[in-house]
UniProtKB/TrEMBL annotation:
<feature type="domain" description="Peptidase S24/S26A/S26B/S26C">
    <location>
        <begin position="84"/>
        <end position="201"/>
    </location>
</feature>
<keyword id="KW-0227">DNA damage</keyword>
<keyword id="KW-0234">DNA repair</keyword>
<keyword id="KW-0378">Hydrolase</keyword>
<comment type="similarity">
    <text>Belongs to the peptidase S24 family.</text>
</comment>
<dbReference type="GO" id="GO:0004252">
    <property type="term" value="F:serine-type endopeptidase activity"/>
</dbReference>
<dbReference type="InterPro" id="IPR015927">
    <property type="entry name" value="Peptidase_S24_S26A/B/C"/>
</dbReference>
<keyword id="KW-0068">Autocatalytic cleavage</keyword>
<dbReference type="InterPro" id="IPR050077">
    <property type="entry name" value="LexA_repressor"/>
</dbReference>
<dbReference type="GO" id="GO:0006355">
    <property type="term" value="P:regulation of DNA-templated transcription"/>
</dbReference>
<dbReference type="GO" id="GO:0009432">
    <property type="term" value="P:SOS response"/>
</dbReference>
<dbReference type="Pfam" id="PF00717">
    <property type="entry name" value="Peptidase_S24"/>
</dbReference>
<dbReference type="GO" id="GO:0006281">
    <property type="term" value="P:DNA repair"/>
</dbReference>
<dbReference type="InterPro" id="IPR006197">
    <property type="entry name" value="Peptidase_S24_LexA"/>
</dbReference>
<dbReference type="InterPro" id="IPR039418">
    <property type="entry name" value="LexA-like"/>
</dbReference>
<dbReference type="InterPro" id="IPR036286">
    <property type="entry name" value="LexA/Signal_pep-like_sf"/>
</dbReference>
<dbReference type="GO" id="GO:0003677">
    <property type="term" value="F:DNA binding"/>
</dbReference>
Length: 209
């Protein structure tokens, strides 16, 4: 009589296939830590934070002495503006461009005494349109709100990130800093760390040509 253990399954090349388990995808020791993994239950509010901790870390973009420069308005520059908005393309030849004008000083800087310029040296906010070499304007007079891009100070080091303020199920709020680039980790504060919002980013100065 043929016993079940006598059955052999062959692959296309005629090699016997092991039907008693074997290597599985994503099983066994992980190369990063070289040790077995375990299953655990964690609070829902900590899922993002723990995933970020486990991600391979990019080089830190924290800076102790950022190159902040105060704004100095020396001249007035006005650029003619059309009376109505137009779609990208060719404007109407009949449109009057001289009726109104925009002063770039007033348009870009609301509070000159509280506004500073910083040259960006990191790609952590790339998906928000901020790349290495871009200059950003930072207004210290503004109150930072959820979703604002800010210059934050953590343990005497500066970083540019998006401020996130999440309400938890127990009524408290969790404050963290979001990187807009998957290659960089978000920043979650530990109990001994202090967060200070130095200013709110109001403008990205980027030359296209």
């Amino acid at each position: 009589m043929l016993q079940i253990q006598d059955l052999k399954i062959m692959d296309k090349s005629g090699t016997p296939v092991n039907m008693h388990g074997g290597k599985r995808n994503n099983a066994g020791r992980k190369a990063k830590y070289a040790e077995k993994t375990v299953v655990m239950r964690i609070p829902e509010s900590k899922v993002i934070e723990i995933k970020q901790y486990l991600k391979p870390k990019s080089a830190s973009d924290l800076e102790t002495f950022p190159d902040l420069k105060p704004i100095q308005i020396k001249t007035q520059l006005k650029i003619s503006a059309p009376l109505e908005s137009v779609a990208a393309g060719f404007p109407s030849p009949a449109m009057d461009y001289s009726v109104d004008a925009i002063d770039l000083n007033d348009f870009l800087v609301k509070e000159p005494q509280a506004t500073f310029m910083l040259r960006v040296n990191s790609l952590s906010m790339k998906n928000a349109g901020i790349e290495v070499g871009d200059r950003i304007l930072i207004d210290r007079s503004l109150k930072a709100e959820h979703g604002d891009i800010v210059l934050a100070l953590i343990n005497n080091e500066f970083t540019v990130k998006r401020l996130m303020r999440e309400k938890l199920s127990n009524g408290t709020y969790k404050i963290w800093l979001k990187a807009e680039n998957p290659d960089f980790p978000h920043i979650f504060l530990h109990s001994e760390e202090q967060l200070f919002i130095w200013g709110v980013v109001t403008c990205i100065l980027k030359k296209l040509k």
